[in-house]
Amino acid sequence: MFYPLTISDFLDRAVTVYPDRIAVVDEPAQPAQSWGEITYAELGRRARAQAATLDELGVPVGGRVAIVSQNSARMLCSFFGVSGWGRVLVPVNFRLAVAEIQYIVEHSGAQVVLVDPDLAHLKDELGVGEGGVDHVFVLGQDDDKIWGSTADPRPWEADAVEKENATATINYTSGTTARPKGVQLTHRNNWLNATVFGWQASVDDRDVYLHTLPMFHANGWGHPFAATAMGVKHVVIRQIDGAEILRRIDEHAVTYLCAAPAVVAAALDAAKDWQGEIPGRDRVRIIVAGAPPPTRTIERVREELGWEFIQIYGLTETAPLLTMSRMRAEWDHLDPTEQARLLGRAGAPAVGVRVMVDDTGEVLAQSNHNLASYWENPEATAEAQAGDWFHTGDGGTFEDGYVTIADRKKDVIITGGENVSSIEVEDALMSHAAVREVAVIGIPDEKWGELVTALVVLDPEADAPSAGDLITHCRQHLAGYKCPKRVEFRDELVRTATGKLQKFKLRQEFWEGQDRQIN
Question: What is the β-pairing status of strands 64-68 and 88-92?
């Protein structure tokens, strides 16, 4: 017999096996009233109530529900309360500008939008009713309207194959164009990513997971699912602070967390002022992705914090796990610097993942984690999946069973673990009347990995703006993390005979001496 792999499997198991365990320790300091500590039985009850509410609101199977929120127990619950009964959750980056959020909500066709209390103004911006969404609810303020139903949710009526291949989430990524693309991940994609990731990261029912990674970011890399299935305690942190990370690890006996390189740097900085032994020494494992940290940073995590360092590589489109680099027995005899160098590679393919590097040096992957398609974008889907391989847009090597990423073929900058489309930033800058030409590139930065940098040629006949003026202009159009942190004015930009910008030449002066063109 064939039984479908669905999101609900993870919470169903936790409710069955660990009903009285604490499922979530919600963020105590937040604008909404904290849920405090709730058990898996209670989390299951609230997920069912949320699904029943969507029944009552008339949201059909396949209907989209967007959520724009910082990490919270309410958001964690929504992964199950929405997707578990056949609807599609659209987690939206809360850092985006209003216009960007409006585009995602409209493009996804979301009927219901759940917003963080700090973003309550979106209720007016999105427009409810004719020409807008059907319902906008503010988390905390409108909880009775989201989780107040006492009815049983209607069963999801579909055959097994249809359920497993149904879209569970749509996650928007900046990609390489001025408009974000919606990555459709099916129940099968998310289920297999979570189980493989959880297994290879050694997640078990003795773990305590700290949510330093935004849950909207590729569905928290699948750990809302993987950790839930194993009865793991979820500790929610709303805003990232190095000292607070160490305090939570100490207070809740945290055993693992996922993080971008900027979070690693924050923890290392906080450790300098920490009184006493660093929390979690010889207990915590930190799973890092977004960009490979320098070898010395990996050494410091292992030496100064005493945490196990695990590196992964993947994309939103791959749910995200493609490869994992973790300490292995064959390296035990090596010195710590060499071990750290090996751990700095993107990693070996995860179970069920096949990797190759094509003639152009691009890393390609086949996996059951790979996206079904881009929402309402068949052209981009066909391009990304050409030849039955997913084209990552990253240049690299695949040797001795390990992938190393060396360059990006796509016009993407990764800063603080977030993807930034350089084309999107260029569009925003070009909308300033004084800008005649612009090229946006990423340059190496110790804290952020890559710093969004704009090289600008001004119109000599216009009033010359300052660098600060251009950054302020960008903030009117883009999320803050996308805006340039550095602006340099140039007399001209290097172009080919056909007028094409040669960004690799523009990048050379900043990346000279680096062994790879990413940081």
Answer: parallel
* Cβ atoms 177, 421 nearer than 8 A: yes
d(CA 279, CA 286): 13
C-alpha to C-alpha distance for 201 and 285, rounded to whole angstroms: 9
C-alpha 216/C-alpha 67 separation (Å) is 9
For residues 211 and 249, is the Cβ–Cβ distance under 8 A?
no
* Residue-wise pLDDT tens digits, 55-106: 999 999 999 999 999 999 999 999 999 999 999 999 999 999 898 999 999 9
| Dihedral (Cα; 500, 503, 506, 510), 10-degree rounding | 180
Length of the chain: 519
Query: Sign of torsion, CA 58 32 20 65?
Result: positive
* Integer Cα distance of 320 and 390 in angstroms: 12
- The pLDDT of residue 407 is above 90: no
**Tens-digit pLDDT profile for residues 348-376:** 999 999 999 999 889 999 999 999 999 99
Query: In angstroms, rounded to a whole number, what is the distance separating the alpha carbons of residues 132 and 387?
Result: 39
Backbone angles phi, psi at 167, to 5 degrees: -70, 130
Angle at the Cα of 374 from the Cα atoms of 369 and 378, rounded to 5 degrees:
125
pLDDT at 361: 86
